[in-house]
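Sample entry (80 residues):
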Amino acid sequence: MSSCCSTSAPTPGGRENLLDGTTGADMTTCPVMTGSPVNKATAEAAGLFRDYEGERYYFCCAGCGPAFDTDPAKYAAAMA
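Predicted structure, serialized as tokens:
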């Protein structure tokens, strides 16, 4: 599976990619890289989330937050 920040190398800014298939973890998907699994606790600890209209959105890597910021309504609708 690919990510905007690549799963095989560190992401820009030195942050780890949060694609994580850990069984039993509280998981969601990235609204920017649709279908990319994200461990909520890991993303939150790394600051890779945004709150929009009362909902929290978690990102698979550091590049997805700024992309989400460009059109949050579009990405939020994709998660509905």
